[in-house]
Design a protein that fits this description.
Distance between the termini: 45 Å
Structural class: alpha/beta
Shape: globular
Oligomer: single chain
Number of helices: 8
Helix content: 40-55%
Order of helices and strands: HEEEHEHEHEEHHEHEH
Largest sheet: 7 strands, mixed
Radius of gyration: 20 Å
Number of strands: 9
Length: about 240
């Protein structure tokens, strides 16, 4: 009996340590309440692509996030996911890959932008079933930016436009803003001092139709629990 108690204690300590490590290393955690189990995913700093960023830069690695999303969606122990965003943007391919996976999950997903959801953070914010933004948060919408060697031929610019169209199409499909309105704020030349684009504050992002609602953590969790209840009911009815 004593050995069993020790074993159980060790098991609890291991689980607690594992949870602590997940939060520290990957910014993920599970919240278990009577209303359901929520997986909390944090997307912060810069979205890392195929090149490894400096260890001095806070980053979100897509090779960690993609398999994690599959696990969350298929796990019988998780009812929904809360995505917390505070990102400056980053790699377009990696960001769109994460956004596409979130948008096609069957489990309920709610996102909340805290601090900033800039650049490729915009598709990540709208990929959820319902999106929130803090009143003090901002989102920068701007045209595609590429670094490194660029070949100055017409095909290069055509490719730029095609990549940008992918971003525009995703945002339009997953929010309430029209293509024309989104492209207008993306190519605005009067809002940024040394660049093209627009900085949207919390209420602005909602008014233009990119984000669903201004709100904080309480609003986001309540909405997620509501979506979880609807998801469960739909499962029963089917």
């Amino acid at each position: 009996m004593k050995n069993n108690e020790i074993s159980e204690n060790e098991k609890e300590e291991t689980t607690s340590q594992s949870t602590s490590d997940d939060i520290k290393d990957f910014g993920i955690s599970h919240i278990k309440t009577k209303r359901g189990v929520i997986h909390c995913l944090t997307i912060i700093g810069q979205i890392e692509g195929h090149s490894v960023l400096s260890s001095q830069i806070k980053s979100t690695k897509y090779e960690h996030i993609l398999p994690l999303l599959v696990t969350v969606d298929e796990s019988e122990d998780i009812d929904g996911m809360l995505v917390i965003l505070n990102t400056v943007g980053g790699d377009v391919e990696a960001g769109l890959a994460i956004a596409e996976m979130i948008s096609t999950m069957k489990k309920p997903v709610v996102s909340i932008v805290l601090g900033g959801g800039h650049s490729i953070g915009v598709p990540l914010a709208v990929a959820s079933d319902y999106s929130f933004i803090a009143r003090s948060a901002t989102m920068t919408v701007h045209p595609l930016r590429l670094s490194g060697q660029v070949i100055a031929v017409s095909q290069t610019y055509e490719q730029f436009n095609k990549i940008q169209d992918r971003i525009v199409d995703f945002v339009v499909r997953n929010s309430h803003i029209s293509k024309e309105a989104f492209e207008e704020i993306m190519t605005n030349t009067k809002a940024l001092a040394n660049d093209v684009g627009t900085v949207l504050f919390g209420e602005d992002a909602v008014k233009c139709g990119i984000i669903d609602q201004v709100g904080g953590l309480k609003c986001a969790t309540e909405k997620l629990y509501s979506l979880i209840d609807n998801y469960r009911q739909a499962e029963i009815n089917s």
